[in-house]
Design a protein that fits this description.
Blueprint lengths: L1 E4 L10 H9 L4 E3 L11 H12 L5 E6 L2 H9 L4 E7 L10 H8 L1 H12 L7 H4 L6 H7 L24 E7 L7 H12 L4 E3 L5 H4 L1 H8 L8
Parallel strand pairs: 1-2, 1-3, 3-4, 4-5, 5-6
Helix pairs in contact: 1-10, 2-3
Length: 225
């Protein structure tokens, strides 16, 4: 079974095209809706929601997008996850908070440098950094599913003593402007000793290139897992 964690805001809708692709190929797939806008709920509550979906299912494939990378190792410490796949994800150190991650990884300088090299604006906006290669009709449909990420989670640590023993893959989108691909490769090597695999699309690759992303997610897996 594939269990998919969304990024900031926590909307399961983000994964809807990938879920359809996975199911069409004979795989079970569930995207978890998280209370991202709730100031009383943070990383522990996100973890609990994902663990509840997994239950006692062995060999779950856990997929985490962007800020979902902070929840994923906490889930792996509590549930029988067979494979963890990070997609354009924040890769935390044990005890690190999302708020600390930006500075400790050099995310912002990397984003600005990539913008200057690529000839697009350095000031963040959704169209430039998230929606630049998402089909217009999909972007329009997503407007009703957008919600803010409450501040509480940014100040909470990734509550693990060490990175879990779970087999981990890192997928980095070639046109990600928010977390540029070279930045993601460096973080994956430095923090996990893993070489990131490249997929097409930008930061929201599950919306722009769901079929190609799912090709990578199912690579090497038995049908129906």
């Amino acid at each position: 079974m594939f269990v998919l964690i969304p990024g900031a805001g926590g909307s399961a809708w983000y994964w809807h095209r990938a879920v359809s692709e996975l199911r069409a190929r004979g795989h079970e797939a569930v995207a978890v809706d998280l209370p991202g806008a709730d100031e009383s709920a943070g990383l522990p509550e996100y973890t609990e929601a994902v663990v509840e979906v997994i239950g006692d299912r062995a060999d779950t494939v856990l997929v985490a997008q962007s800020m979902g990378g902070f929840t994923a190792p906490m889930v792996c410490a509590r549930a029988p996850v067979g494979l963890l796949v990070l997609v354009n994800a924040m890769v935390p150190l044990p005890g690190e908070t999302p708020g600390q991650w930006w500075g400790s990884t050099g995310s912002e300088p990397a984003r600005v440098a990539a913008a200057e090299a690529g000839g697009y604006g350095t000031e963040f906006d959704l169209d430039t950094y998230f929606l630049h290669n998402v089909p217009p009709e999909i972007a329009a449909a997503g407007a009703d599913h957008q919600r803010p990420e409450a501040d509480i989670a940014f100040n909470q640590p990734c509550a693990v003593d060490r990175w879990p023993d779970t087999t981990t893959r890192v997928l980095a989108a070639a046109e990600d402007r928010f977390f540029p691909v070279d930045f993601q490769r460096r973080v994956a090597r430095d923090r996990l000793g893993i070489e990131a695999e490249t997929v097409p699309g930008g930061h929201l690759t599950a919306l722009s290139h769901p079929s190609q992303l799912v090709d990578k997610l199912v690579e090497g897996l038995p049908r129906g897992r």
